[in-house]
Design goal:
The protein is α/β, with parallel strands linked by helices and 563 residues long. It is built from 15 helices and 24 strands.
Length: 563
């Protein structure tokens, strides 16, 4: 396994401070706020006299974890966290999830220019596609790219690698499941907007053009054990090429063994998730409605009466909140071998783009509940690495006085005072911009010490894969692949080929010679697949060749057609 140089340096830095951290009488916690302030803010505080020291010790002493839970607050920079904390809990309060993780660091997030004189050089303000691809693959790339490098070559993702290593995998979001952050785990496309077969931006990635297909189509083939979010609209589209041409993606998913659910009752009825019966839960046509109803920032808005955020009447039921979905996903994924799970709070970013302070606050609070759910499991399990971070920073700023030209909002906070929030990177009706600031990353559990100090977003891939002790040479898992087939069959009868030990592949294709050149691709489930076809009517000897779609491994078997 290759460990990045920066990850090694970071780990050594953490070890260097480990002695001080582990002195029994030193608590790993922030200085406590006055009790009156904490109480008035309604804060739930992490108990520094509890297990904080043992948590840090485990993070430094052991880098091996059975499970990894990565939680991404999209667009959740330090400013967005502070805005939410001040509003919901007060300046001296704490977000019960995000602020409870014992180890913290910072990481850089720049992307790369794709072409021209600056090809390969830093693009200082990234998008969610490039940043997600960075932690998903360990490779920096250009804005708009989904898990391909700057030359558009697909890069294996942490979910694909974990799956090949025999772990269960999950992908949970409050956005469309095809949006950049969830998409980077399960697909490889040049343009992030290639959601479904009808997307005009798919270009060479379209199945009809000989590509891997749209994000939705690739998700079905990647086959995470659990995928939960929005984006059902793209699954109503019809495949226009391949063996499922003419069928909707929902029909295709069902035919390929998925448990497809679309509401809370359907999800509650699911009791298990596996490669034989993975779960695809899509609960909205697009993104989830936000927790709080939107506010509108205006020029001079911070001089208006302070507002309090109101519940959004369109919000989904509580059993479809991000916290609940996280708990459900963990329960479906928990097993003896281990799992990898990514959870995204997507609309912190989306509401920040819209200069909607209450929207982004509610989504940060929602996300924090998911962090609490992950931590509760990790503390009980004792062998789970939890990482909490963001993909890129954003543009909301807490200001002292009302900016004369920027959009702004006044909020009545938990402290009983007014907080002024300004958005200065776009005018009225425009979309606020991402920013290029480094981001906070926090960790709990085995291997969490590798995030201490300043790392890069790509190092997160190595932190996770090393903690799980993943073998990243996934093609090797198909080296011992084999076939079995009836040696003698009658003309026109059914030939059944059993392929197994294809652990490095998600699909295989088959061909027969002489005669039929290519047979339809088949999903590999638990390293095996069964391929059936009609025997030729001509008597004689034939060879069937099965090829791993991801590994390229080819295995042949012979059979004879005779009366």
């Amino acid at each position: 396994m290759k460990i990045s140089t920066r990850a090694k340096v970071t780990a050594l830095s953490a070890l260097a401070v480990g002695t001080a951290l582990l002195v029994p009488d030193i608590a790993v916690a922030v200085n406590p706020a006055p009790a009156s302030l904490a109480a008035s803010a309604g804060a739930t505080r992490h108990d520094p006299a509890g297990d904080a020291s043992s948590s840090v010790k485990a993070a430094i002493d052991s880098g091996d974890a059975k499970n990894v839970i990565l939680l991404i607050g999209d667009g959740m920079g330090d400013s967005e966290i502070t805005v939410a904390r001040n509003y919901q809990y007060g300046a001296a309060g704490r977000l019960p999830g995000i602020d409870a993780l014992p180890l913290t660091g910072q990481y850089t997030t720049y992307s790369l220019y794709r072409e021209g004189a600056n090809k390969g050089k830093p693009d200082y303000v990234p998008d969610s596609a490039a940043t997600g691809s960075a932690w998903a693959t360990g490779t920096k790339t250009y804005d708009n790219a989904i898990s391909v490098d700057i030359d558009q070559a697909p890069q294996p993702t942490i979910l694909e690698i974990a799956k090949a290593n025999g772990l269960k995998t999950g992908d949970v979001t409050t956005s469309e499941i095809q949006d950049a952050t969830p998409a980077v785990l399960v697909s490889h496309v040049d343009a992030r907007s290639c959601y479904g077969p009808d997307s005009p931006t798919c270009g060479n990635d379209a199945l009809a053009a000989g590509g891997l297909g749209s994000i939705s189509e690739q998700l079905i083939g990647t086959r995470p054990d659990v995928a939960l979010g929005g984006g059902s609209a793209s699954f109503t589209q019809t495949a226009n090429a391949g063996q499922w041409a003419g069928q909707t993606l929902f029909d295709q998913a069902t035919e390929r063994g998925y448990q497809v659910v679309g509401d809370a009752a359907g999800l509650t009825a699911v009791t298990a998730a596996s490669q034989k019966a993975p779960v695809l839960g899509l609960f909205t046509p697009g993104n989830f409605p936000t927790r709080y109803a939107p506010t509108t920032a205006t020029v001079g808005g911070a001089d208006l009466p302070a507002v309090s955020c109101q519940p959004n009447p369109e919000r989904l039921s509580s059993d479809l909140s991000l916290g609940s979905l996280t708990t459900t996903a963990i329960s479906l994924l928990d097993n003896k071998k281990g799992f990898f799970l990514q959870v995204e709070g997507a609309s912190i970013d989306k509401r920040d783009h819209s200069a909607d302070a209450c929207g982004q606050i509610g989504e940060t609070v929602d996300f924090d509940e998911a962090v609490q759910a992950a931590l509760a499991f990790a503390e009980k399990d004792g062998n789970t690495l939890v990482l909490v971070t963001a993909d890129h920073a954003h543009s909301s700023q807490i200001v002292d006085s009302t900016p004369p030209t920027s959009l702004s909002t006044a909020l009545a906070t938990a402290d009983g005072t007014v907080m002024k929030v300004s958005y200065g990177t776009a005018g009225v009706g425009g979309s606020q911009q991402h920013t290029g600031s480094q981001l906070g990353v926090a960790g709990f559990g085995p291997g969490a010490a590798n995030i201490v100090g300043l790392t890069d977003q790509t190092d997160t891939f190595f932190t996770m894969s090393n903690a799980l002790e993943l073998d990243r040479n996934t093609t090797a898992f198909s080296e011992r692949a084999r076939l079995s087939v009836d040696r003698s069959v009658k003309p026109g009868s059914t030939v059944t080929v059993k392929a197994d030990r294809f652990g490095g592949d998600r699909q295989v294709s088959a061909s027969m010679a002489p005669g039929r050149a290519v047979l339809e691709p088949t999903d590999i489930i638990d390293s095996a697949a069964t391929i059936s076809f009609t025997a030729p009517t001509a008597l004689g000897d034939y060879t069937v060749t099965v090829t791993g779609a991801q590994s390229g491994k080819q295995v042949t078997a012979k059979f004879t057609v005779k009366k």
